[in-house]
Design goal:
By secondary structure, the chain is α/β, with parallel strands linked by helices. It folds into 2 domains: 118 residues, NAD(P)-binding Rossmann-like Domain (Rossmann fold, 3-Layer(aba) Sandwich); 177 residues, 3-Layer(aba) Sandwich (Rossmann fold). The protein contains 9 helices and 13 strands. A hairpin with a 2-residue loop joins strand 8 and strand 9. Helix 1 runs parallel beside helix 9 and helix 3 crosses helix 5. It is globular, with a radius of gyration of 22 Å.
Amino acid sequence: MKPDEAVLVHLALAASSAEMHAIELCLGTAGLVARWIEHEQALSAELGAVRFLLVGRPPRLDWSNAGQLALLQVAGAGVDPLFPAAGLSAQTHIASSRGVSTEAVRDHVLGLLLSLARALPRYVVQQRERAWLRHSHSSVAGKRLTLVGFGQVGQAVAQAARVLGMRVRAVSRGAGAVVDGEPVFPSERLHEALRDADFVVVCVPLTQETRGLIDARALSMLSSEACLIDVSRGGVVDEGALEAALRSRKLAAAARDVFELEPLPADHSLWSCPNLSITPHVGGLIPDYLLRVVELFVDNVQLVRSGAPPRTLVSRELEY
Protein backbone atom coordinates (compact mmCIF):
# COMPACT_ATOMS: atom_id res chain seq x y z
CA MET A 1 0.00 0.00 0.00
CA LYS A 2 1.29 3.45 -0.89
CA PRO A 3 1.73 6.01 1.92
CA ASP A 4 -0.98 8.25 0.47
CA GLU A 5 -3.41 5.33 0.65
CA ALA A 6 -2.98 4.88 4.41
CA VAL A 7 -6.22 4.08 6.21
CA LEU A 8 -7.19 5.86 9.42
CA VAL A 9 -8.20 3.77 12.41
CA HIS A 10 -9.36 5.06 15.80
CA LEU A 11 -8.04 3.62 19.06
CA ALA A 12 -9.53 4.18 22.51
CA LEU A 13 -7.07 2.24 24.64
CA ALA A 14 -5.21 2.76 27.90
CA ALA A 15 -1.62 2.34 26.71
CA SER A 16 1.79 3.49 27.87
CA SER A 17 3.93 5.64 25.58
CA ALA A 18 6.07 2.59 24.75
CA GLU A 19 2.99 0.55 23.93
CA MET A 20 1.58 3.36 21.80
CA HIS A 21 4.80 3.49 19.80
CA ALA A 22 4.83 -0.29 19.26
CA ILE A 23 1.16 -0.22 18.25
CA GLU A 24 1.73 2.59 15.75
CA LEU A 25 4.61 0.65 14.19
CA CYS A 26 2.42 -2.45 13.91
CA LEU A 27 -0.36 -0.45 12.28
CA GLY A 28 2.06 1.30 9.96
CA THR A 29 3.32 -1.95 8.44
CA ALA A 30 -0.26 -2.65 7.36
CA GLY A 31 -0.85 0.82 5.97
CA LEU A 32 -2.94 1.97 8.91
CA VAL A 33 -2.60 5.23 10.79
CA ALA A 34 -3.76 5.60 14.40
CA ARG A 35 -5.98 8.36 15.74
CA TRP A 36 -5.92 8.10 19.52
CA ILE A 37 -9.06 8.93 21.50
CA GLU A 38 -8.60 9.74 25.18
CA HIS A 39 -12.10 9.63 26.62
CA GLU A 40 -15.73 8.79 25.90
CA GLN A 41 -16.77 12.39 25.20
CA ALA A 42 -14.11 12.71 22.52
CA LEU A 43 -15.29 9.47 20.94
CA SER A 44 -18.88 10.69 20.85
CA ALA A 45 -17.79 13.87 19.11
CA GLU A 46 -15.88 11.96 16.42
CA LEU A 47 -18.27 9.08 15.78
CA GLY A 48 -19.44 10.39 12.43
CA ALA A 49 -15.93 10.12 10.98
CA VAL A 50 -14.95 6.77 12.48
CA ARG A 51 -14.74 3.74 10.21
CA PHE A 52 -12.56 1.31 12.17
CA LEU A 53 -12.54 1.48 15.96
CA LEU A 54 -10.68 -0.48 18.63
CA VAL A 55 -11.83 0.20 22.19
CA GLY A 56 -10.74 -1.05 25.61
CA ARG A 57 -13.87 -1.17 27.74
CA PRO A 58 -16.65 -0.25 25.32
CA PRO A 59 -18.53 2.84 26.48
CA ARG A 60 -22.30 2.86 26.79
CA LEU A 61 -23.33 5.61 24.42
CA ASP A 62 -25.71 6.33 21.55
CA TRP A 63 -24.07 4.98 18.39
CA SER A 64 -26.64 6.54 16.05
CA ASN A 65 -24.09 8.99 14.63
CA ALA A 66 -21.63 6.23 13.72
CA GLY A 67 -22.94 6.00 10.18
CA GLN A 68 -19.57 5.07 8.67
CA LEU A 69 -18.50 2.59 11.34
CA ALA A 70 -17.62 -0.68 9.61
CA LEU A 71 -15.80 -2.42 12.46
CA LEU A 72 -16.05 -2.03 16.22
CA GLN A 73 -13.59 -4.29 18.02
CA VAL A 74 -13.33 -4.67 21.78
CA ALA A 75 -9.86 -5.28 23.22
CA GLY A 76 -11.05 -8.17 25.35
CA ALA A 77 -12.90 -11.46 25.08
CA GLY A 78 -15.99 -10.11 26.85
CA VAL A 79 -18.21 -7.65 25.00
CA ASP A 80 -21.08 -7.51 27.50
CA PRO A 81 -20.52 -3.83 28.45
CA LEU A 82 -21.31 -2.88 24.84
CA PHE A 83 -24.85 -4.17 24.71
CA PRO A 84 -27.56 -3.14 24.01
CA ALA A 85 -25.39 -0.96 21.72
CA ALA A 86 -28.17 1.55 21.19
CA GLY A 87 -28.28 2.99 17.69
CA LEU A 88 -25.47 0.83 16.30
CA SER A 89 -26.12 0.07 12.63
CA ALA A 90 -26.78 -3.53 11.63
CA GLN A 91 -24.07 -3.02 9.00
CA THR A 92 -21.38 -2.51 11.64
CA HIS A 93 -19.34 -5.61 12.39
CA ILE A 94 -18.72 -6.19 16.10
CA ALA A 95 -15.59 -8.15 16.97
CA SER A 96 -14.00 -9.32 20.20
CA SER A 97 -10.38 -10.15 20.94
CA ARG A 98 -11.10 -13.71 22.03
CA GLY A 99 -8.25 -16.13 21.65
CA VAL A 100 -5.51 -13.60 22.36
CA SER A 101 -4.84 -14.94 25.86
CA THR A 102 -6.48 -18.37 25.83
CA GLU A 103 -3.31 -20.11 27.02
CA ALA A 104 -2.83 -17.58 29.83
CA VAL A 105 -6.38 -18.09 31.12
CA ARG A 106 -5.93 -21.86 30.86
CA ASP A 107 -2.75 -21.60 32.94
CA HIS A 108 -4.52 -19.42 35.51
CA VAL A 109 -7.33 -21.95 35.82
CA LEU A 110 -4.87 -24.81 36.27
CA GLY A 111 -2.93 -22.85 38.85
CA LEU A 112 -6.08 -22.13 40.86
CA LEU A 113 -7.36 -25.68 40.48
CA LEU A 114 -4.14 -27.27 41.74
CA SER A 115 -3.86 -24.66 44.49
CA LEU A 116 -7.32 -25.58 45.78
CA ALA A 117 -6.70 -29.31 45.34
CA ARG A 118 -3.53 -29.14 47.42
CA ALA A 119 -4.96 -26.55 49.86
CA LEU A 120 -2.08 -24.16 49.21
CA PRO A 121 -3.96 -21.13 50.61
CA ARG A 122 -4.03 -22.93 53.97
CA TYR A 123 -0.24 -23.27 53.92
CA VAL A 124 0.20 -19.60 53.08
CA VAL A 125 -1.70 -18.79 56.27
CA GLN A 126 0.33 -21.33 58.24
CA GLN A 127 3.58 -19.84 56.96
CA ARG A 128 2.46 -16.41 58.12
CA GLU A 129 1.68 -17.91 61.52
CA ARG A 130 4.89 -20.01 61.53
CA ALA A 131 2.81 -23.11 62.10
CA TRP A 132 4.20 -26.50 61.00
CA LEU A 133 0.97 -28.45 60.42
CA ARG A 134 0.77 -31.21 57.85
CA HIS A 135 -2.37 -32.28 55.96
CA SER A 136 -2.96 -35.02 53.41
CA HIS A 137 -4.40 -34.18 49.98
CA SER A 138 -5.53 -36.43 47.15
CA SER A 139 -4.43 -36.08 43.54
CA VAL A 140 -6.65 -34.48 40.89
CA ALA A 141 -6.19 -37.62 38.80
CA GLY A 142 -9.53 -39.39 38.55
CA LYS A 143 -11.47 -36.35 39.79
CA ARG A 144 -14.49 -35.08 37.86
CA LEU A 145 -14.13 -31.63 36.28
CA THR A 146 -17.25 -29.94 34.94
CA LEU A 147 -16.67 -27.05 32.57
CA VAL A 148 -19.50 -24.54 32.37
CA GLY A 149 -18.70 -23.15 28.93
CA PHE A 150 -16.85 -24.93 26.15
CA GLY A 151 -15.37 -22.20 23.99
CA GLN A 152 -11.67 -21.70 23.40
CA VAL A 153 -10.82 -21.45 27.10
CA GLY A 154 -13.00 -24.38 28.07
CA GLN A 155 -11.50 -26.58 25.39
CA ALA A 156 -7.95 -25.60 26.37
CA VAL A 157 -8.65 -26.38 30.04
CA ALA A 158 -10.25 -29.70 29.07
CA GLN A 159 -7.18 -30.75 27.12
CA ALA A 160 -4.83 -29.91 29.99
CA ALA A 161 -7.08 -31.52 32.61
CA ARG A 162 -7.15 -34.78 30.68
CA VAL A 163 -3.34 -34.82 30.75
CA LEU A 164 -3.61 -34.61 34.55
CA GLY A 165 -5.87 -37.64 34.51
CA MET A 166 -9.10 -35.82 35.28
CA ARG A 167 -12.47 -36.92 33.96
CA VAL A 168 -13.90 -33.99 32.01
CA ARG A 169 -17.49 -33.01 31.35
CA ALA A 170 -18.72 -29.82 29.68
CA VAL A 171 -21.89 -27.75 29.52
CA SER A 172 -22.51 -25.51 26.51
CA ARG A 173 -25.34 -23.99 24.53
CA GLY A 174 -23.73 -25.47 21.41
CA ALA A 175 -24.55 -28.99 20.28
CA GLY A 176 -22.54 -31.79 18.72
CA ALA A 177 -19.27 -31.64 20.67
CA VAL A 178 -17.97 -34.62 22.61
CA VAL A 179 -15.68 -34.62 25.67
CA ASP A 180 -14.13 -37.85 26.94
CA GLY A 181 -16.63 -39.82 24.92
CA GLU A 182 -19.60 -37.97 26.45
CA PRO A 183 -21.78 -35.51 24.54
CA VAL A 184 -21.50 -31.96 25.83
CA PHE A 185 -24.43 -31.23 28.13
CA PRO A 186 -26.88 -28.60 26.85
CA SER A 187 -27.48 -25.59 29.09
CA GLU A 188 -30.82 -26.90 30.30
CA ARG A 189 -29.02 -29.91 31.85
CA LEU A 190 -26.59 -27.76 33.84
CA HIS A 191 -27.75 -29.02 37.23
CA GLU A 192 -27.34 -32.64 36.15
CA ALA A 193 -23.78 -31.93 35.00
CA LEU A 194 -22.92 -30.33 38.36
CA ARG A 195 -24.15 -33.11 40.64
CA ASP A 196 -21.06 -35.32 40.78
CA ALA A 197 -18.43 -32.68 40.02
CA ASP A 198 -15.32 -32.43 42.17
CA PHE A 199 -14.25 -29.22 40.44
CA VAL A 200 -16.29 -26.73 38.42
CA VAL A 201 -14.74 -24.15 36.12
CA VAL A 202 -17.05 -21.36 34.94
CA CYS A 203 -15.86 -19.88 31.65
CA VAL A 204 -18.94 -18.66 29.78
CA PRO A 205 -19.46 -15.13 28.46
CA LEU A 206 -21.86 -12.81 30.28
CA THR A 207 -25.11 -12.51 28.36
CA GLN A 208 -28.76 -12.13 29.27
CA GLU A 209 -28.93 -15.92 29.20
CA THR A 210 -25.95 -16.55 31.50
CA ARG A 211 -26.44 -13.74 34.03
CA GLY A 212 -26.95 -15.42 37.40
CA LEU A 213 -26.49 -18.85 35.81
CA ILE A 214 -24.60 -20.22 38.83
CA ASP A 215 -27.15 -19.33 41.47
CA ALA A 216 -28.05 -20.82 44.84
CA ARG A 217 -29.90 -23.72 43.25
CA ALA A 218 -27.01 -24.56 40.95
CA LEU A 219 -24.57 -24.42 43.87
CA SER A 220 -26.81 -26.71 45.88
CA MET A 221 -26.21 -29.41 43.26
CA LEU A 222 -22.55 -29.57 44.32
CA SER A 223 -21.24 -31.67 47.16
CA SER A 224 -19.66 -30.07 50.21
CA GLU A 225 -16.28 -31.36 48.96
CA ALA A 226 -16.51 -29.60 45.59
CA CYS A 227 -14.48 -26.56 44.49
CA LEU A 228 -15.55 -23.83 42.06
CA ILE A 229 -13.31 -21.64 39.89
CA ASP A 230 -14.76 -18.59 38.13
CA VAL A 231 -12.91 -16.99 35.19
CA SER A 232 -16.02 -15.93 33.27
CA ARG A 233 -17.38 -12.44 33.91
CA GLY A 234 -18.78 -10.80 37.01
CA GLY A 235 -22.50 -11.53 37.07
CA VAL A 236 -22.45 -15.15 35.88
CA VAL A 237 -21.93 -16.48 39.41
CA ASP A 238 -24.30 -15.14 42.08
CA GLU A 239 -21.80 -13.65 44.54
CA GLY A 240 -24.17 -13.68 47.48
CA ALA A 241 -25.10 -17.31 46.92
CA LEU A 242 -21.45 -18.32 46.56
CA GLU A 243 -20.45 -16.50 49.73
CA ALA A 244 -23.32 -18.11 51.64
CA ALA A 245 -22.31 -21.58 50.41
CA LEU A 246 -18.69 -21.03 51.51
CA ARG A 247 -19.53 -19.57 54.90
CA SER A 248 -21.96 -22.43 55.65
CA ARG A 249 -19.38 -24.97 54.39
CA LYS A 250 -21.77 -26.30 51.77
CA LEU A 251 -18.91 -25.80 49.33
CA ALA A 252 -15.31 -26.73 50.09
CA ALA A 253 -13.55 -23.85 48.36
CA ALA A 254 -13.71 -21.41 45.48
CA ALA A 255 -11.41 -19.16 43.47
CA ARG A 256 -12.55 -16.10 41.56
CA ASP A 257 -10.81 -13.85 39.06
CA VAL A 258 -13.90 -11.84 38.09
CA PHE A 259 -16.41 -9.81 40.08
CA GLU A 260 -19.58 -7.80 39.55
CA LEU A 261 -17.83 -4.68 40.81
CA GLU A 262 -14.20 -4.21 39.82
CA PRO A 263 -11.96 -3.29 41.52
CA LEU A 264 -13.51 -5.21 44.41
CA PRO A 265 -14.05 -2.62 47.19
CA ALA A 266 -11.68 -2.95 50.14
CA ASP A 267 -14.62 -3.27 52.56
CA HIS A 268 -16.38 -6.00 50.55
CA SER A 269 -17.28 -9.08 52.57
CA LEU A 270 -15.76 -11.40 49.96
CA TRP A 271 -12.27 -10.40 51.09
CA SER A 272 -12.87 -12.16 54.40
CA CYS A 273 -14.89 -15.07 53.03
CA PRO A 274 -13.40 -18.39 54.21
CA ASN A 275 -11.88 -20.71 51.63
CA LEU A 276 -12.15 -18.15 48.85
CA SER A 277 -9.08 -17.29 46.76
CA ILE A 278 -9.22 -13.91 44.98
CA THR A 279 -7.20 -12.72 41.99
CA PRO A 280 -7.85 -9.24 40.51
CA HIS A 281 -9.03 -10.15 36.98
CA VAL A 282 -5.54 -11.09 35.80
CA GLY A 283 -6.23 -14.45 34.19
CA GLY A 284 -5.71 -13.15 30.67
CA LEU A 285 -2.98 -10.59 31.35
CA ILE A 286 0.23 -11.16 29.42
CA PRO A 287 3.07 -8.67 28.80
CA ASP A 288 2.31 -8.17 25.10
CA TYR A 289 -1.48 -8.36 25.37
CA LEU A 290 -2.24 -5.02 23.72
CA LEU A 291 0.11 -5.64 20.81
CA ARG A 292 -1.49 -9.03 20.17
CA VAL A 293 -4.91 -7.39 20.24
CA VAL A 294 -3.77 -4.80 17.70
CA GLU A 295 -2.36 -7.51 15.44
CA LEU A 296 -5.78 -9.18 15.52
CA PHE A 297 -7.41 -5.79 14.87
CA VAL A 298 -5.21 -5.32 11.79
CA ASP A 299 -6.32 -8.71 10.46
CA ASN A 300 -9.96 -7.85 11.10
CA VAL A 301 -9.67 -4.44 9.43
CA GLN A 302 -8.19 -6.06 6.34
CA LEU A 303 -10.93 -8.69 6.26
CA VAL A 304 -13.70 -6.10 6.58
CA ARG A 305 -12.11 -3.90 3.90
CA SER A 306 -12.16 -6.91 1.56
CA GLY A 307 -15.86 -7.50 2.20
CA ALA A 308 -15.43 -10.43 4.62
CA PRO A 309 -16.51 -10.62 8.26
CA PRO A 310 -13.86 -10.21 10.98
CA ARG A 311 -12.16 -13.33 12.31
CA THR A 312 -13.61 -12.81 15.79
CA LEU A 313 -17.10 -11.74 14.78
CA VAL A 314 -19.57 -11.28 17.63
CA SER A 315 -23.16 -12.48 17.20
CA ARG A 316 -25.56 -9.75 18.26
CA GLU A 317 -28.18 -12.40 18.97
CA LEU A 318 -25.90 -14.43 21.25
CA GLU A 319 -23.98 -11.38 22.58
CA TYR A 320 -20.58 -13.10 22.17
